[in-house]
Amino acid sequence: MTNKKKPSRQATMTSTAGLQKKRLCGAVLLTLGLPASAQSYVNYDGSSSTDVAAAVASWAANSEFKTDWGLGAMNAQYAYAAGFSGLGIKLGSVDSGLLLTHAEFVSRNVKALAVIGTYANDGSQYQNGSQPWKAGDAFSTTGAVSTLNDKHGSHVSGSIAAAKNGAGIMGVAFASDYYITNTNGTDSSVYGVNMDYNYFKAAYGNLASAGVRVINSSWGSPDSRDDFGSIGGVAAAYQRLQGGAKKSWLDAAADVAQASNTLMVWAAGNSSKSNVNIRSALPYFRPELEQNWIAVAAVNASSVLPSFSNQCGLAKYWCLSAPGSAIPSLNITSDTALVNASGTSMAAPHVTGALGVLMERYPDLDNQAIRTILLTTSTHLGGGAVDVPNAMFGWGLPDLKKALNGPAQLLGVFNANIGSGRSDTWSNDISEAALVQRKSEEKAQLAAWQALSVSTLQAAVDSATAQVTSRVNSGYDAALALVQTRAQRNATYQASKKKEDNTAFQNADKAVAANPLAAAILKQSGTGALLSKEQLLTYVLSTDTDMVAANLALGNYKGQTAYLDAVQKKTDADYVGTLVKSGAGVLTLSGNNSYSGGTRLEGGTLAVASATALGSGALGMNDGTTLRAAADGLALGNAVSLHGEGRIDTQAFTLTLNAGIADGSGKGSLVKQGEGTLRVLGPVRYSGNTTIAAGTLSVPSFAQTSEQILTVGVASATQYGKLAVTGTASFASGARLAVDVSKAATLARGQTLGGVITAGSLSAPSLNVSDNSLLFDFRPVVANNAVDLNIVDVVSIQQVVKDTLAPATVAAAPAAVITPTASTPTASTPTASTPAASTPAASTPAASTPVASTPVASKPAASTPVASTLVAPPPAFRTSLAIASAVAATPVAPVLDRQIQHPSSGDMAQVVTALGRLPDAASLMRAASQTLPRNDSASAIRGSQASLNRVIATRVETGSSGIDGVGVGAGSGLAYGEAGADRQVWIMPFESRTNQGDRGGASGFSASTWGMAAGAEMELERGRVGISYAYAGTRTSGNTAITGTGSRGRIESNMLALYGSVALGELALGWQADLGWIGNRLSRDLQFGGLNRIASSRYHSWSAHVGANVSHTLPLSEVLGLVPALQLDYTRLQSPAYAESGAGDLSLSVQGKRSQALLLGVSTRLNYAVTAASQISSYLGASYDAINDRDDLVATYAGAPGQAFTAPGTARSAWLFKAGVSYRYQLMATADITLRLDAEGRSGFINQSAALKAGWRF
Q1: Is the per-residue pLDDT at 236 higher than 80?
Q2: Region Disordered: what ranges (predicted)?
Q3: Residue 809: pLDDT over 70
Q4: Of the residues 351, 425, 426, 1064, which has the fewest C-beta atoms closer than 10 A?
């Protein structure tokens, strides 16, 4: 809707071809409460800066930015400097096409969507009936500009989304994803009853279906009959659209908005009227559309409403005023042309682009929230209060600087959704001023409207009509005579030109002017026939002051019906602002907020940085949500209600709640977090549990039933949760006090947590204390209106292991032994006077003290049955995995028990604390097993050595193919089928996979090996001899089932071998001797009770191996041979002592180890000659390890160097079984290749390998 009252000044601008468009990439942290120096801003050239002023200036001073003065007027430079430009946001428009080849869009990947379908009704594009269609006719257009269009759509598109390319202009949302559909006409298209529902349902619907969130509508002109000067006039225009018993084009737009929740931005119109056009005014008649509607009036560079622009009027609560005068944007005369244009058509796209920028800024907010932010942060223009919209400018001029800091008002329920992993700070003051004004205005309008009636107003119209009719009927003849006399006098004068005739004419003319009816006849008749009485009556009825006033009053009354009907249904709750915090992220409110509808915390964390951050209403907290103090000394006046578990995090601050805490719609529980103090001055009335994870909870009174639980978190002997009651604290008999040690930094036997509960007056006759530590227990001491907790040790790791491995030997001890009757002192009987309470059981070493003899004075027998203690773990725990963990923990349990009693160092105290955090036997035994050395290395080395030895073994295998003239005699030293030659070289890459299962409490592993071997050999008089070098790299990964954590290793093996074969008559003797040098890099994870460490080590090992086999070839046919053999192999692996690092006092010093194996074996090979050049060989064998070393390791903790323990290695079967198959192919007389697959295994262990050998003889 371009202003057509005056021609627009045109100016053509060019842009540099091929200039690469630069986008701001990513959202930059802007308002997260960080100091300015910690933030990053974006300069115009795309570079980063920590200087916000310089970044803003780089945009504001750039010529591309300054070309459209509207960008600076809306403070867009601040949004761009913060990194927001609409990136990834889908914006669109319905308009007269876009010149897709224009330099501002050629690289923008615009989506020009097709509009295809059939018309629903007869109609035409223009009011004069041109470009008509019939119902059922097909339509098909694209978003690209066509011969039926003008420049309007291209101009509008440029203001929204023109590229930032260093030339010409840049759109407000220059990085957005832009979509357009075509109106199939020019800006002169009339948006009246002539337009078709189906066409515009497709035009708007296709954009919405593509995901467009905002659709701009600047197109077209109003019906010539429309008069927006009054409510009645706007209502009449609405009624015209509703006529004809058919759905209008505007119904199509409304249907799309409601179905897709798309925001619709409308140009307000250029009729210079006091109200917006009918499409912008639609929510006045259909209030449910208001949340999706924005009307836009125009302002010039002086922030003045141009003469052409309609005012916001009845749409002021959903209306803005944006730059719309002398706006440069795209022309369609060339691919670089620009043109200035004025009109509300130019204003609307500035708002559409601004919405896109804010949608990037607030990625989790819905369209209604974005709309609210843009409206309420706009700069007030014109008269009236600065925080409410007015009839001329509505909310005023969009301000993208202020809009970056959250809403400035709430217009109802505002959903502040902050997604998981995100944090945001809103610093604007948030009020509900517009709602307050709107309530006052609407109630006054409603009262005035209700004071009237249609009958009264119609009577006034009828009365005025009667008076006008009577006046015309009675005065028409006389008035007609006066007009006729004037005509006669004029004719006489024109014929004579005499003075007296002129005087007579002048007198007759004065007589006509003095008679209103005569004057009306003369004026309206013009040069034609004089008006009849009926024609005169029609005219006077339309112009009579009283008649016009009566009709206006009646029209305005009827026009307000739909709007005020909706107002009647509103309650006071509809005129207050409510903030709903949803999503798992964090929102901080730091403004001076005054909204009164309350705050609903439905997800994530809501932080307050001012005492009025939550306005004046109540705060309701849903289960799992957190209220966080973001400043010290805040005192909130909001009542707090809890539905489920509500968390209040003071951090290190003091936070005061003046109005108390109560249940919400359901039972509420409070979790106090943070080291600071939460002071509740009002009543405490929630009915659930209380948890003080850290810091102090101060309340005026406290009453706990036996069904409720008070939980305190313990970080150390000096840092733990405290309940401070200024008045009376009452605990019912058997009231439960739970201790949470999961985050304890230090925990040790004999510590006292003083003043866990303090009160002005305390009644605690029998506290039932529990905890989530298996090793430690907490004994309450009640005295002097306070409760202290003494830490005592309850169970040893050795006892847990014993109970798990031998449950049948552990009898359930009598309850009286475990829980003495005098375990819980009353308020009048200090614990110190009770022997059980004053003599901790920890005075006897845990390793030698059965659990049954360790007092658990803090646990009354009634609530702590023996079955729930660790004296006899429940049968469900004694699984095979639990037994394996217990076996693994057995050797180290005594050492750890001694450290629990008397930590040898500060770091060991931390280890003890971590063990104390563990809640059950399974996690305790897993933790103990994690501290053991992992024996993966020795087993993995043996696996890689086996692969290397098999590689060498292929060179000393002897036998005959059994093919006369082709086979090789026994003792040749060659592999099967190789032709004899004096010398040969070979190379063989190989790969193997090893898997060792968990056995007997020792964790297994998996290993992957890759390597390369090469060698050379020569023929001797009675055999052959060769030398070989092989390298293998192995990566190991420890199993996690037993320990719960992993281990890793990297092993590099180097082997130098001598090998050979010799014929012994019918037998053949093969031999091999090799030395290996192995580099080991190992690490293992320790993760338990909050401890998170990695123990690492590096060392070198040596290996030696000698082996021999005796074989005999038995020909079975010309192509088949059997080769049985006896084998003997001896291997020795020598590993030095090594020390770990990285695990503190749990780092191990491991003693040196010698590992040996002596394998006695038998095998047989079956060779089959497929052709003269190829052979298949299969292999089966078994060996017995006469030594079968378990690879036990002796180690000490760095924090307990004098307390060695032995970690047993994997229990292995002595029998080892082998199998393999190979295929050899002779490429030529002097070269061949061989593919070999092998496997060996024993119970719980398997090693598989593959090798490819290539050999050349010379």
Answers
A1: yes
A2: 821-859
A3: no
A4: 1064
CA distances from 1013 to 566, 988, 1056, 1106 (A): 89, 5, 10, 18
CATH number of the domain to which 112 belongs: 3.40.50.200
Q: Are residues 591 and 615 in the same domain?
A: yes
Structure confidence by residue, pLDDT tens digits, 716-763 = 889 999 999 999 999 999 999 999 988 777 778 888 999 999 999 999
* One domain for residues 599 and 545: no
Range of the domain at 763: 578-868
pLDDT, average across residues 279-304: 98
Q: Which two tokens stand for residue 1033?
A: 């790299």
Two tokens at 961? Answer: 């193919």
Which of 15, 124, 345, 1222 is flagged as catalytic? 345
pLDDT of 892 strictly over 50: yes
In what helix (H) or strand (E) does residue 937 lie, and over which residues does it extend?
helix 936-956
| Catalytic residue list contains 643 | no
| 218, two tokens | 């600047």
**Cα 1028 vs. chain centroid, distance in angstroms?**
58
CA pseudo-torsion sign 971, 977, 982, 983:
negative
SS3 of 1102-1149: the string is EEEEEEEEEEECEECCCCEEEEEEEEEEEEEEEECCEECECCHHHCEE
Partners of 1177 in the β-ladder? 1167, 1222
Same domain, 1080 and 1194: yes
Number of Cβ within a 10 Å radius of residue 94: 26
127's tokens:
């009011």
Label residue 1205 left, alpha or beta by phi (over 0 means left) and psi (-120 to 50 means alpha): beta
3-state secondary structure of 251: helix
Pick the catalytic residue from 152, 350, 380, 643: 152
End position of a domain, from candidates 299, 330, 358: 358
- Beta-carbon count within 10 A of 1131 CB: 24
657 token code pair: 């709640």
In contact, 89 and 173? CB cutoff 8 Å: yes
Helix 906-916 vs helix 893-901: angle between axes, to the nearest 10 degrees? 110
What whole-number distance in Å separates Cα of residue 278 and Cα of residue 282?
A: 6
Same domain, 595 and 625: yes
pLDDT tens-digit readout, 411-455: 999 999 999 999 999 999 999 999 999 999 999 999 988 888 888
SS3 content of the chain, % helix, strand, coil (to 5): 30, 35, 40
Is residue 1158 within 8 A of residue 1185, CB to CB? The reply is: yes
Q: Do 667 and 785 fall into the same domain?
A: yes
| Eight-state DSSP code of residue 309 | S
Is 95 known to be catalytic?
yes
Q: Which of 542, 568, 594 is the last residue of a domain?
A: 568
Q: Say whether both 557 and 597 belong to one domain.
A: no
Q: Among this protein's residues, is 345 annotated catalytic?
A: yes
Count Cβ atoms below 10 Å from residue 5 Cβ, excluding itself.
12
Claim to verify: residue 547 and residue 613 sit in the same structural domain:
no
What's the structural domain count of the chain? 4
Whether 1112 and 1169 map to the same domain: the answer is: yes
Per the model's pLDDT, the better-predicted residue between 270 and 947 turns out to be 270
Choice among 58, 93, 95, 773 that is catalytic: 95
According to the model, what pLDDT value does residue 38 have?
Answer: 53
Q: Which residue has the higher pLDDT, 824 or 553?
A: 553
Are 1210 and 1004 in contact, with CB atoms under 8 Å apart? yes
Q: Which two tokens stand for residue 731?
A: 């605990």
